[in-house]
Design brief:
With 92 residues, the chain is an alpha/beta fold. The chain has three helices and four strands. The chain has a four-stranded parallel sheet. The termini are far apart.
């Protein structure tokens, strides 16, 4: 039996999408305190998020509803078309 079963678990990869650097920084700090999560990217615009998702499909996106660029109604279908399994948590 493995002495450290948590070491075998894959970390949940989270992309932080918010136009404000201080908000992204605070979210990163909170997430990094949990050993089960890792931040895959911090992005400030919808285009940066779309680029990241198309190259590295994260498990979860923490999405600011007011993210500069595309409206959420346009962005979400685009994200799911390139990464159908991604889960999105909208922060409004």
């Amino acid at each position: 039996m493995n002495a450290h079963p948590a070491a075998d678990m894959r970390k949940v990869r989270v992309a932080l999408a918010d136009g404000r650097a201080e908000v992204r920084s605070a979210m990163r700090l909170l997430l990094e305190q949990d050993g089960g999560m890792s931040v895959s990217a911090e992005v400030a615009t919808a285009q940066e998020l779309a680029d990241h998702v198309s190259t590295s499909c994260p498990d979860v996106i923490l999405l600011d509803c007011d993210l500069p660029g595309l409206r959420a109604s346009e962005l979400l279908p685009r994200l799911h078309s390139v990464c159908p399994s991604v889960q999105v948590v909208a922060l409004c």
